[in-house]
Specification:
By secondary structure, the protein is α/β, with parallel strands linked by helices. It folds into three domains: 179 residues, MutS, DNA mismatch repair protein, Chain A, domain 3 (Orthogonal Bundle); 87 residues; 207 residues, P-loop containing nucleotide triphosphate hydrolases (Rossmann fold), CATH 3.40.50.300. The chain has 19 helices and 15 strands. The chain has a seven-stranded mixed β-sheet with strand order 1-11-12-13-9-14-15, sandwiched between helices.
């Protein structure tokens, strides 16, 4: 269950992901699959789609891979049209159908070669699609007998067509010879310019003549130029031949139509199979598009649990990542671990513009991608679970039509969350409790958060309220998190630190913006020293945490260098021992020979 279903994808940025996957498809059938991509809660269904994408990514990313999707034309409308007796497919559409048949045959052969004697495939998820493809070699051969590789009906398609085309060739030769003689005489008489050449009007061969000479050439006037300086005459000598030529062309068209109708009759029994093949090709095209998107965004297949679980490393918002790359910037990845029963709901605090909302959207889009069958942009050692729903409250949903303010809309969403949330629901709430008087707003938010925890829901929530930070610190099932902020440079680091609440840095940001010191001092006096000291303690905790993290990282680097040095020394010692044994053995052999 997704809430709100109508705006979820836009709010998280998944609408851009859907467009990108659709654009990566090469067929209308694949784009239809992308349009129908939906959030799934059945673990088996989710895993099947994920493995199809992962297998396709492995296939297409291999250097020198023999796998090619081939051309996929949408001939569904043409196939449905020839269900009617007496109808036919034009040669161009027949050629497209023949190309699709070749793609089906190639894919069937490719995947058949990857099945063992018992029918087990090395690509089981993709094979579950391909196994239902049905090649139609007889229909393909029938089209090949009718059309050449350029899509023209072959002369050999029927004896009558061959005879008609021989007559056409002969008649065209006769007309060309007669026209050359007429032109030569007209040029000799000065009725036609020496560089003039025959033209075609209404399918008939004509001579361009000046108006002054049009009476000198016997024949039929068919047309004149826009300027009126040229008249096009069909010489009398070739009128009958042109008539005969038109008759032959009409006979040819009738025969071609008859052959195409006969071909439609041959194909008609296999139309259901062909339509099914096209749908299956669309599924493969969709899997290939998802694989291309995974390659572009760094998507991988993490370990997936059937129930709620969240242990993510280097998670990135794919749309934000692409936007930053276009600007020559790098995204700050997200590491987040939540677990039952101790840390199911994360309460994130920190300064404005520090990345709290981006963290929420990243959690939402990455989880949604996984359950839509897209490889999420996380490291492979991540562990992700399956949730039965994602509820979000991000942005301003005030409504004039429904007479809802921002806070009323927020409370309406909370009512829905409480009424429909389960132990497998993930809730994402931005600026929890904001939009009304802070004291009561914070109290209501704390009461709602307590109920979320009682219902064992999972979630990520952002806030500035101190009471929610204290509540998260003291309550099992909840944990604090903060967005790191550089106090020296006075700028956010966009990194999430789990385990401690964060400061809003309101006083520091006020000083940075140049607010008069007297106003800042007055504000500190109003809130009292305890509040200011708590905020400072949070800053000190964050600073100390970062200091010890850097220390640990430095120790890990030194330990790694020591391990590498020790490994190198042990390898050198082994080498020296081996050389010593070889020298002693050589000395003994020399001594033996001397003795």
């Amino acid at each position: 269950m997704i809430y709100p279903a109508s705006t979820f994808e836009k709010k998280t940025g998944f609408d851009a992901v859907r467009r990108a996957v659709a654009e990566a498809c090469v067929s209308p059938m694949g784009r239809e699959q992308a349009a129908g991509m939906a959030f799934a809660v059945n673990p088996a269904e989710v895993m099947l789609h994920l493995h199809r994408t992962a297998e396709m990514l492995a296939l297409t990313s291999q250097e020198g891979s023999e796998f090619h999707m081939g051309a996929i034309h949408d001939v569904r409308a043409a196939l449905r049209a020839i269900r009617v007796e007496g109808s036919f497919m034009p040669p161009q559409e027949l050629m497209q159908l023949r190309t699709v048949m070749a793609t089906v045959a190639d894919l069937d052969a490719f995947f058949s070669a990857r099945r063992d004697e018992e029918g087990h495939s090395s690509l089981p998820a993709l094979d579950s699609i391909v196994v239902d493809l049905i090649p139609l070699p007889d229909a393909a051969r029938a089209i090949d007998r009718l059309l050449d590789r350029w899509g023209n009906v072959r002369d050999t398609a029927s004896p009558e067509l061959a005879e008609i085309r021989r007559s056409l060739a002969s008649m065209n030769g006769s007309i060309a010879g007669a026209m050359r003689r007429v032109m030569a005489r007209a040029v000799q008489e000065g009725w036609v310019e020496p560089d003039a050449s025959p033209a075609v009007r209404d399918g008939r061969l004509v001579i361009p003549v000046a108006p002054a000479n049009k009476r000198r050439i016997a024949g039929i006037v068919h047309d004149e130029s826009a300027s009126g300086k040229t008249v096009f005459i069909e010489p009398a000598e070739i009128v009958e031949a042109n008539n005969r030529l038109r008759e032959l062309e009409m006979r040819e068209r009738r025969e071609v139509t008859r052959l195409l109708v006969a071909m439609a009759s041959v194909l008609r029994p296999d139309i259901p199979v062909m339509l099914d093949n096209l749908e299956l090709l669309g599924m493969l095209d969709f899997a290939a598009a998802k694989a291309r998107y995974a390659a572009a965004t760094g998507g991988t297949l993490p370990a997936v649990a059937p129930g709620p679980e969240m242990e993510w490393y280097h998670a990135c918002h794919p749309v934000l990542q692409a936007s930053l790359e276009r600007q020559g910037k790098e995204i700050v990845p997200l590491d987040i671990t939540l677990s039952a029963p101790d840390k199911r709901i994360l309460v994130i605090s920190g300064p404005n513009a520090g990345g709290k909302s981006v963290t929420l959207k990243t959690v939402g889009i990455v989880q949604y991608m996984l359950q839509c069958g897209l490889l999420p942009p996380v490291y492979e050692n991540s562990r992700m679970g399956i949730f039965d729903g994602i509820f979000i409250d991000i942005g301003d949903d005030q409504s004039i039509e429904d007479d809802l303010s921002t806070y009323s809309s927020h409370l309406r969403n909370m009512k829905y969350f409480l009424g429909h949330g389960t132990a497998s629901t993930l809730v994402l709430i931005d600026e929890f409790g904001a939009g009304t008087e802070p004291t009561i707003g914070g109290a209501i938010a704390q009461a709602i958060l307590a109920r979320f925890n009682e219902q064992q829901m999972w979630g990520v929530i952002t806030t500035h309220f101190q009471n929610l930070k204290h509540f998260a610190e003291e309550t099992p099932g909840l944990c604090n998190g903060s967005m790191l902020y550089d106090r020296q440079l006075m700028q956010p680091q966009f990194r999430l630190l789990i385990g401690h609440p964060g400061s809003s840095f309101a006083i520091e940001i006020a000083r940075k913006t140049g607010l008069p010191e007297a106003i800042i001092d007055a504000a500190e006096a109003i809130v009292g020293s305890d509040y200011v000291n708590i905020d400072r303690y949070l800053l000190d905790i964050t600073r100390d945490k970062r200091y010890w993290e850097n220390k640990r990282a430095d120790i890990r680097r030194k330990e790694k260098r020591l391990d590498e040095t020790l490994e190198r020394y042990e390898a050198d010692a082994d080498k020296l021992r081996e050389q010593r044994r070889e020298i002693i053995a050589d000395a003994r052999e020399q001594a033996r020979r001397i003795i």
